[in-house]
Amino acid sequence: MSGNFVKLVEVGPRDGLQNEPYTVPTSLKLDLIDRLGRTGLKVIESTSFVSDRAIPQMADAEDVIAGLKRRAGIRYPALVPNERGYDRARSVGVDEVALFTAASEAFNQHNINCTIEESLRRFAPVVHRARNDGVRVRGYVSTVLGCPYQGQVPIADVVRVAEALFEAGCEEISLGDTIGVGTPRKAAEMVRAVGASIPIAQLAVHFHDTYGQALANIMTCLDLGVRVVDSSVAGLGGCPYARGATGNVATEDVIYMLEGVGMETGIDLLEMARTGDWIAGELGRPRSRAGQAVLKRH
Ligand SMILES: CC(C)(COP(=O)([O-])OP(=O)([O-])OC[C@H]1O[C@@H](n2cnc3c(N)ncnc32)[C@H](O)[C@@H]1OP(=O)([O-])[O-])[C@@H](O)C(=O)NCCC(=O)NCCSC(=O)C[C@@](C)(O)CC(=O)[O-]
């Protein structure tokens, strides 16, 4: 990966939609993924194979994957919490999965109903099978800068969980500020600590923008060498197990900032702004700041 190229992982169709209060039609999800695929994105996290009782919005995961109009050069990963999710994902041809756990026990219990250790035990056979199947595996660590139930999360806990996922075989570790409470110095301290044992090229950052800190946090992490950033078109999202947390940082805002500091994403900002404007309209959601400004100029 070149020094000034930043890979954006678009999480809008999954993280962005999972908390929508009404059922988003599968056709709308597919339309969103297709439009995102025209912007230059190379990774679009498309759905999750979780319990439909836990997350009703993702109940159509098989239909979403089966209905994708796959474009060459784009990867369409999906979240799986356990082997059952892996089986479901594989049954429709998913070739990249993301496992997810947290640095906070309390959050993990609410989110996936088990301890951190149990989650890691559940992941072991998934990673083993994925390796045999040639399936790429990403690992998420949630609550890296704070937890809605426990409050402060010690950095040592983040490091321990990130290392466990990495050693288990996850090729990329995404560090999630699930409730968007982080600020730049804390984010830097956390990334430095994780980066001491995991190559920085294999770390991604995943900021929610609850307190408007996401861009500042991302910039700080870029200065430390991070080159993979998760974001969500129009800033869609919010975690069902983190009340009050708003969406991910908006993809349009991230692209605008990166272009401004001379970094490349390979993504067409105007096309992304149009996509953000369209989906925000469909869902009755606010637009991203940069997206709106770009559209006004054109
Ligand atoms: C993990 C479980 C399944 C445990 O849920 P559980 O109730 O502890 O599991 P269980 O094994 O006892 O199974 C209970 C029922 O769920 C079914 N089940 C079991 N597994 C599956 C599956 N894969 N797909 C479909 N169904 C499944 C299973 O078959 C059974 O059905 P029943 O027999 O009662 O009818 C549940 O808690 C769950 O699905 N949680 C998902 C939570 C979630 O998706 N959260 C949002 C994603 S994480 C996130 O957003 C953060 C992130 C990644 O973006 C980063 C950040 O911002 O920090």
Summarize the structure in words.
It catalyses: (3S)-3-hydroxy-3-methylglutaryl-CoA = acetoacetate + acetyl-CoA. Keywords: Lyase, Metal-binding. It is built from twelve helices and nine strands. 53% of the residues are buried. The longest helix has 18 residues, at 116-133. The chain has a nine-stranded parallel beta sheet with strand order 2-1-9-8-7-6-5-4-3. 43% of the residues lie in helices and 13% in strands. Helix 10 runs antiparallel to helix 11 (269-283). Helix 9 links the parallel strand 8 and strand 9 (228-231). The protein is α/β, with parallel strands linked by helices and 298 residues long. It has a single domain (7-297), classed as Aldolase class I (TIM Barrel, Alpha-Beta Barrel), CATH 3.20.20. 3-hydroxy-3-methylglutaryl-coenzyme A is lined by residues 15, 18, 48-51, 54-55, 79, 81-82, 84-85, 88, 100, 111-113, 140, 142, 176, 178, 206, 239.
Give a short overview.
It contains twelve helices and nine strands. Helix 6 packs parallel to helix 7 and helix 7 packs across helix 8. By secondary structure, it is α/β, with parallel strands linked by helices.
Chain-wise SSE layout:
Blueprint: E1 7-10, H1 12-16, H2 26-37, E2 43-44, E3 47-48, H3 61-67, E4 78-79, H4 83-91, E5 96-102, H5 105-112, H6 116-133, E6 136-142, H7 155-168, E7 172-177, H8 184-195, E8 203-207, H9 214-223, E9 228-231, H10 251-260, H11 269-283, H12 289-297
Parallel strand pairs: 1-2, 1-9, 3-4, 4-5, 5-6, 6-7, 7-8, 8-9
